[in-house]
Each structure stands twice: as C-alpha cells, then as structure tokens.
Amino acid sequence: MSETSVLIVGGGILGTMHALSAVDRGYKVTQIEREVQARGASLRNFGLVWVSGRAKGRELEMALRARERWEAVGKRCPAIGFRPNGSFTLARTAQERAVLEEAANGPDAPTRGFTLCEPDEVRRRNPALQGTFVAGLFCERDAGVEPRLATQAIQAYLTESGNYSFLPGREIREVSATRAIDHLGNQYRAELIVVTTGAAHVGLGAEVLGSSRLRRVRLQMFETEPFEQQLTTSLADGDSLRYYPGFDLPTRAGLQAQHPQAQRDHMQLLCQQRLNGSLTIGDTHAYDEPFDFDLDERPSDYLVDVLSSLLGTKIPPIARRWAGVYSQIEFDPEGPVYFRESVDDGVVFVSGPGGRGMTLAPEIAEETFA
Ligand SMILES: Cc1cc2nc3c(=O)[nH]c(=O)nc-3n(C[C@H](O)[C@H](O)[C@H](O)COP(=O)(O)OP(=O)(O)OC[C@H]3O[C@@H](n4cnc5c(N)ncnc54)[C@H](O)[C@@H]3O)c2cc1C
C-alpha cells in the first residue's frame, strides 16, 4: 500500500495539469498512467490554446483564464513551447466575410482581441499568407504549445519538486473512497483521487463515463515536413465558423453550401506551425462508432488544397498522419463546459472537455482544487 495526498489516474494533459495544481498547493502527488507514456488526445492535438470561437459566457471566461495559466506555465517550463502567436480565421467568400465582420463588431470582440483585417493587413501580419482570401479575423488571445512535448515537459518539471511521482505502465482497475488498485494488485491510498482517463469510456468508471452526456469523437490529422516560411499566427478557414459556438451569429445562417468533402467529414482547416517548422493540419470529425481504424486519404487531399490556396504555394510533403479520439460532453449553452462527477468521498472523475481540452486543462484543474 503506497500513500499519497493526491492520486491522479491518467497521464494526459488533464491529469498533468491537476498534478501541477496539486503540487503548487503543497500536496504530495502520484500520477498513474497505463501506457509507458501518455499517447492519447493530449499528444495528438494541434496544441492550439484557442479562445476565438468559444461560446460567450462561462466557456469564454474559462478559455481566457486558461490561456493566462498556459502563459504562466510556459514561463516556469519553457519546454512546453508556449507562444502567444494569435490566429487568423480566413474568409474565402463574401458570406464568410460577413460572419467575420459581425464577430469583429460584437460586444465581446475586445475581450477576444478580434480585429477584422483586409488581405493586405493579413499579409503584413502573417507574410506567409500570399494566396486567395477576402478577409481575416485576427484573434490576439489565441496561442500555441507543443502537444508532443508539453505533457512530459510538465511532468519532468514536477519531478524536480520532490513532491511528485509518475508511475507508468499501471492500469487502475478499481477506485473507491481513498483507495485505488492497479492491474498488478498494487494498492494506493490517497485523500483525493482524480480520475482523468480521457476517452476511455469502458473499464474503470464505465458507469460514470459511459453516461449518455459524454460522446467520443474521432479526428484525422497530419503533419508536413518543415515549411521554409514562418507562419506567424495559427490559421483557421471559414469552415471553422460553422462549428465554433462563438460564431453562432445571424450571418452564419447565410453561409454558402459547404464543399461536399468538408461536409461529409465535418471538416474545417486548422493549422499550427510546429517549432521545427512543420505544419500540423486537420481536421475531420466522426461521431458514429465503431470508428474507422484506418486513415482516409480524401480529407487530407482536400485540406492540402485549401491550405495551399491560402498560402499561395504548395505545402511540403506530408511526413506523418494519425487519428485521435476525445471525450466530449453534450453541448448545452446553459450546461457545464466539461464533465465532473464525485462518485465517492474523495473520488472525482473529470473528462469531456472535447476539442477544447488542451486549452482548458489548466483552468479545469484549478477548478477541481478551488
Ligand atoms: C486530433 C485532436 C486534436 C485536438 N486539438 C485540440 C487543440 O488544438 N486544442 C484544444 O484545446 N484541444 C484539442 N483537442 C482536445 C484535447 O486534446 C483533449 O480534450 C485533451 O487532450 C484530453 O485530455 P485528457 O488528459 O482528458 O485525455 P488523454 O490525453 O486521452 O489522457 C488520458 C490518459 O489516461 C490514460 N488511462 C486511461 N485509462 C486508464 C486507467 N484505467 N489507468 C491508468 N491510466 C489510464 C490513457 O492511457 C491516457 O494517457 C484535440 C483532440 C484531438 C483528438
């Protein structure tokens, strides 16, 4: 039986940010991960700390606070690669431009740091954008981190505190008040157990996480060889206006029909340049299980065309492709932004932040301890 103040189950970004919040409060923390290293959604994402399209109200407030927390974590732990690079959402049609204009004139535009830019101004701020678009919405609050590095970098930083240990290769099979048991029969006693097992809706906590308010979503992504130019901002195309609740504005109803490929796979273009120059590009959304186990080429071909037309040049060859799955709470503008349930005294399950989990993780963790 090993003893600790706080036991975190799950080695992804949600668990790791909980570990950071707990260590900062002076607790002794043990974090357990079933793989040798986490390899779920937390490493497979764009690393976008995304404020621009968040629903007004609590979701936006959380995203703004989380973004500040990411910046602070970046100062303590530079290896996460935090950069306050802002983003451009680019309109390619008059209808998309109308949505950008409405957003730029909205009451919370200053909070989000929105500026509507004509193409010349877009190119001045991000000279790599030499292609075809009619306007860009700059969001000053958007930022980026390195998803393949961030989780492990924070864990390495925590290890130096002397109050943290990471135990890989152990799957927790059972949790009850103040006690957890792994697949080897090892027992852990803790005052608080935080379960952050991501999109694993079966096994541990199946009754809790298998609830109908949580669904799983599969995304396809890819990354290119290094691009010779620097993208000074993150990028989104006009299709992203269809999905983000912050753009649920009257002009959105006037958007042109979506390209059949984008419509089929519920796609938008998002692109973040990595610190080594390569471009992380996505994404698709599949909601019906069983999910495909293989990767479909057609969405990638489509996104390569869209990004090339915005950049006005061919993008480098694709170096790698992958899919990822996240857990998402049912969207309800009045409801919770993520899933949290206390199942026993001292056991709390936290999941379901969906496509905003990387962004919100530090704020969600703070809420758990607050
Ligand atoms: C392709 C893709 C792109 C995305 N892009 C973005 C983005 O740019 N910005 C953004 O804000 N969000 C993004 N998201 C969402 C974000 O990545 C997720 O919401 C977030 O990473 C979820 O973190 P997590 O720690 O809950 O889950 P995970 O990263 O899945 O971690 C859960 C961990 O728990 C472990 N585990 C499970 N069961 C057990 C057990 N019984 N015992 C021990 N360990 C266990 C798993 O092995 C896993 O490592 C994206 C998601 C995907 C899939």
UniProtKB/TrEMBL annotation:
Record-annotated FAD dependent oxidoreductase domain positions: 6-368
InterPro entries per UniProt: FAD-dep_OxRdtase, FAD-dependent_OxRdtase_HpnW, FAD/NAD-bd_sf
Record flagged with keyword Repressor: no
Short name of any one Pfam family annotated for the protein: DAO
Coiled coil stretches, renumbered: none
Cofactor(s) essential for the protein: FAD
GO MF, any single term: oxidoreductase activity
Gene Ontology cellular-component terms listed: cytoplasm
Keywords associated with the record: Flavoprotein, Oxidoreductase
Family: Belongs to the DadA oxidoreductase family.
Protein name in UniProt: Unannotated protein
Species the sequence originates in: freshwater metagenome
